[in-house]
Amino acid sequence: MPAILRDKIHSLTNTLVCPGCYEDLLEIETDLCCTGCGESYKPNRYGYLEFVLNRNLYGIDSTTEEYAEDQSVAGQRFFNEYLHPWLDQEPFRRVLDVGCGVGRGISQLIREGYDAYGIDLPNLSRFWQQAGNDRGRFLACDSGRLPFPDGFFDAVYSTGVIEHIGTADGNSTLLPDYKRARQHYADEILRVTKPEGRILISCPNKNFPVDIQHGPQDDTSPEIARWRINFFNRTGVNVHPIWGKYHLLSYPETRELFCKPGGARQFEPLPLNGYFGFGRFESGFLSPIARLATAYVNHLPRIMRGGIFNPYMLVQIRR
């Protein structure tokens, strides 16, 4: 093992905990070993530590080379125009991105001197290596079992992730126990956030019938009407049901996850101004309404943010 990688692992022994039992980790040669349950964790072939308890996650390959490149460009715009201003609203030092993708935002925060970490599925490790991401700051793990101590972060954000939790393919096909998986996700994010800390969660709003980010395919929903597929193929717009079992979440469903069992004390729908880049509106069927759509989401009245007229579920949760 290269000396620099050994130093990275050594520096994490007093920072991370076992995601299985939350006990301390001990460095033994090239591994981090749990002092409680005895489980050991080691770096993968790309040099990033893996804390994956659910072996099924290795079968999910959610990012292509093309999508990773798109993520990098869009992620920089989102970081500059929305995320960094959100973080700067209150003092913060330590931040976590749950579902960080290629990790553009976390890498920038690290360069600015913040104590920042990103976690995602094991298949993202190759993109982290390509981008030169810090091996001590990016970890492969299950979002429902995080290797961090209680109350470790000032702020946690997880954007475009919650709708994929509890799916068989990392996309939209829900598992039978998807509700349980989503509760674990919410509970873990709350656990690692300090008291009074902030959490940012987002996904397309289930109660709004139009989604431009996901296709209509879903093996667990009732048979998909042919017109929905044809319409999506022609326009890139998924007109979806707003009730029943579906991978997207509504504001009430997200509030249920974080505030009832989780015990979060504040749940606040946020304005969408600056959140979207509207890249999909720049050409094709949607281009004539780009200006109208931009004006609509950027000036949505406060009273309408948490309801059926909001195309996106974007919320700040206070621990």
Account of the protein in words:
The chain is an alpha/beta fold and 319 residues long. The chain starts with a helix and ends with a strand. An eight-stranded mixed β-sheet has the order 4-7-6-5-8-9-13-12, with helices on both faces. The protein has a domain at 1-42. It has eight helices and 13 strands. The longest helix is centred in the N-terminal third of the chain and has 23 residues, at 65-87. The model has no long low-confidence stretch (mean pLDDT 87). Strand 5, helix 3 and strand 6 form a beta-alpha-beta unit.
Query: What is the chains' assembly state?
Result: single chain
Radius of gyration: 20 Å
Spatial strand sequence of the major β-sheet: 4-7-6-5-8-9-13-12
Q: Give the overall average pLDDT.
A: 87
Form type: globular
Distance between the termini: 40 Å
Order of helices and strands: HEEEEHEHEHEEHEEHEHEHE
SS class: alpha/beta
Q: pLDDT below 50 for ≥5 consecutive residues: which ranges?
A: none
Number of strands: 13
In a nutshell, what does this entry contain?
The chain has 319 residues and is α/β, with parallel strands linked by helices. 29% of the residues lie in helices and 19% in strands. It has a domain of 42 residues.
